[in-house]
Amino acid sequence: MIKIVTDSTCNLSPEQLQRHDIRVAPISIQFKTETYEEDIDIDRDLFYKKIDEMGIIPTSSQPSPGRFADYYRELTDQGHSILSITITTKHSGTYQSAVLAKDMVPEADVEVFDSATISFGTGYMVLEAARAAEAGQSRESILKRLAEIRDNMCLFLTPATLKYLQMSGRVGRLATAFASLLNIKPVIKMEDGLLEARENVRTRAKAINRMLELTEEAMGTTAPINLAAIHARSPEEGQALLEKAQARFNCQETLIGDLVASLTVHGGPGILGLFAYKV
After folding, report:
1. Its pTM surpasses 0.85
2. CATH number for the segment(s) 2-27+62-150
3. Helix 139-152, helix 120-134: angle, nearest 10
4. From edge to edge, which strands make up the β-sheet containing 28-31?
5. What is the CATH architecture of 154-278?
6. How confident is the model over 220-258, as pLDDT tens digits?
7. pLDDT, position 180
8. Helices (DSSP H) in the chain: which residue ranges?
9. Could you give the residue range(s) of every CATH 3.40.50.10170 domain in the chain?
10. Region class of 110: left (phi > 0), else alpha (psi between -120 and 50), else beta
């Protein structure tokens, strides 16, 4: 059987991962000399607490090839072939770690796939792949479907504040102060595996409406889609966004979740996002 390996940025719940027997390589998060593995020895509460206490933005790094190799050996010993699905190569070296691990376990039958996206974008691909494998589909058929999703998906994000972008060096202090004074909110799009600022709008409400409009431009309102609402420690706003999307689109399946810490590093709490693709 085909088994799925992914990384901790996929945003799937422990229940979903367990249900489909999915292996997860954790992203490392470093606060100066302290190193943690995401969702193993650091959770979101500790993550934000340490940021507030230390006044710094941590760094993150991809899982080691050895972590992927351990999973490859385990699954190969169980008689499985393997499909690794990782976060976009444009923002992480995780794909390269997963590929390097293949050389460490030459007996393993492994294919590595770059999702070219983040969070539930990767997570939905992982779910599709796991369900297809359980249904007996070939790896070639699964890879073809993943490529279709990757080529026709959309992901939009907007942060609540520019504070974390400024702390991370992505936005200068003067620009942050000016934008905050004007209550400017960027709308960010995933484009060819890169997160790019698409436009700036005034007020949080307009940014949320703009994400819905851009999703409609990409997906339409009649074709069946799978959709995920993403939030960072803003469950009420995330639920409200999901309900607006469900009223607007022909959603076949929806997910909602708190953005993983390793992806919240630069945007901070309050990020909202929408991911969608046609079924």
Report:
1. yes
2. 3.40.50.10170
3. 150
4. 34-37, 28-31, 59-61
5. 2-Layer Sandwich (3.30)
6. 999 999 999 999 999 999 999 999 999 999 999 999 999
7. 54
8. 14-19, 44-54, 65-77, 94-104, 120-134, 139-152, 163-167, 173-181, 204-219, 235-248, 261-264
9. 2-27+62-150
10. beta
